[in-house]
Amino acid sequence: EAKTRGRGRVAFFDVQLRERLQRYLELEQDLRAAVDHGELWLAYQPIVNLHSNRVAAVEGLLRWTHPRHGTVSPEEFIPMAEESDLIHSIGAWVLSTAVEQIATYRDKFDLDLRLKANLSVRQLEDPELPQAVDDALRASGLPAKALSLEITESALMHDPATAARMLQELRRYGVRLAIDDFGTGYSSLAQLLRLPLDSLKIDRSFINDIARSRDSEALVTSIMAMAHAVDLGVIAEGVENASQLAVLRRLGCDQAQGYYLGRPTPVHELAGTIEVANRRAIIE
Ligand code: C2E
Ligand code: MG
Ligand code: MG
Ligand code: MG
Predict the structure, then answer these.
(1) What is the ipTM of this complex?
(2) By the 8 A CB rule, do 254 and 51 touch?
(3) Is the distance from the beta carbon of residue 86 to the nearest atom of ligand 1 less than 6 Å?
(4) Which class for 140: exposed (0-12), middle (13-18), buried (19 or more C-beta within 10 A)?
(5) Helix and strand totals (H; E) in the chain
(6) pLDDT in tens, 67-85
(7) Ligand 1 pocket test target in 118, 203, 208 with most atoms within 8 Å of CB
(8) Of 1-5, 117-121, 136-140, 216-220, which gets the smallest average pLDDT?
(9) Which residue range or ranges hold the EAL domain (predicted)?
(10) Residue 94 CB less than 6 A away from ligand 1
(11) What is the CA angle 175-177-179, rounded to 5?
């Protein structure tokens, strides 16, 4: 009997594996057309400044509405795009679209809202990136200092020398630079300090337990002390409730982002999301 059950389990995993593989191949094949068919879009999530208690920025987060599979996460399709050359056209589309949409939004609401956009490790190796960023800014009228580019710690550590050169170059155009998912990439502090960064985003895995665990709080406290000592602004991501927000505020964190303040939202609904975030930022 145990034997039959065992065999059943093997068959079950086999089916699951086959379905996963099939989905992978299908998505990979459809990604090229997704760009041309307008299936990609950007959601924007508010980021609150904890000193002014106002929404100061939004992060552009890529979405793919697949005709059969519905919304596909960037965690799933960005790696596919990175394995082909599609990441370059997708990355360029993200930059020009986000910069254009937020420039328009700022004009419409007369707001000094900043934009954060994510860069792939592959874009860091593209010598044409700085020019593309500058072109997008010029076409939209968004001031360079209103744009902050986020690069994950692991992307920066993939090839630190190339990354450092690229960041220096981007910096010359006046854009700001942030390290994303900090704490997950095993970087050496010495290497990080050599990069021209403006801010550091603490990974949400560290924020998760911050209101429940002294150890988490101590860890975040020390990351923040280190960042502030070298003049980096600190942003906490993954803030899901009021107690986490209260702890971060008490510790002197500069900015916060998370479902508690607001979820990623299509641009036509962003005004409502920002309004709620502004209210949440004050009430505790
Ligand atoms: P990220 O840049 O670290 O973005 C934050 C992620 O955390 C987003 O996931 C966001 O929806 C999610 N998040 C925000 N608040 C909370 C919260 O309170 N709780 C939880 N559990 N999650 C929260 P998303 O949108 O699925 O994006 C995942 C990752 O995909 C991003 O992580 C980023 O690394 C990558 N990505 C997204 N858009 C782009 C893009 O345009 N280009 C590139 N290269 N990568 C992108
Ligand atoms: Mg990010
Ligand atoms: Mg992050
Ligand atoms: Mg992340």
Answers:
(1) 0.98
(2) yes
(3) no
(4) buried
(5) 12, 10
(6) 999 999 999 999 999 998 8
(7) 118
(8) 1-5
(9) 24-278
(10) yes
(11) 165
